């Protein structure tokens, strides 16, 4: 019978994911990439890759990297949780904005349109792994240039796929 553990490793830098685990009472420790790992390289989009396939691939790659990291660091075995959220307008993947102009471009692109927010989750250890995906359709109201400018000035778009946080001001 599978042995339950009272610890989960979270291989994510997202404060929101830590907060969600805290809210449901899951004891967790962060298992973040070291300086020697190319964490950003994992997130490079392959030419012609559909957003859902991209999100699933990146999440699986994050889990593989985290499993290797746990072993390399000699940490006790426990399940590892990884996730990735991708924002897509049609087949265009919107990553984290590089700067204010990039954030403005993304927000203008989504203004008055429906886009997809794709979240893939993978959990596992060396013996077994499971994954799931959620795809939400999100419709943005038409945004004025002034609204976009104010939102960017709040600094909220940075570090977030598609330049916004659905659980925050953008809602």
From TrEMBL:
**Keyword Hydrolase on this protein?**
yes
| Keyword list, A-Z | Hydrolase
CDD domains, sorted = Maf (cd00555)
The yes or no answer to whether the keyword Hydrolase is present is yes
GO MF terms here are: nucleoside triphosphate diphosphatase activity
Q: Which cofactor does it need?
A: a divalent metal cation
Question: Where do the coiled-coil regions begin and end?
Answer: none
This protein is called what?
Septum formation protein Maf
Q: Where is the organism placed in the taxonomic lineage, from the top?
A: Eukaryota, Cryptophyceae, Cryptomonadales, Hemiselmidaceae, Hemiselmis
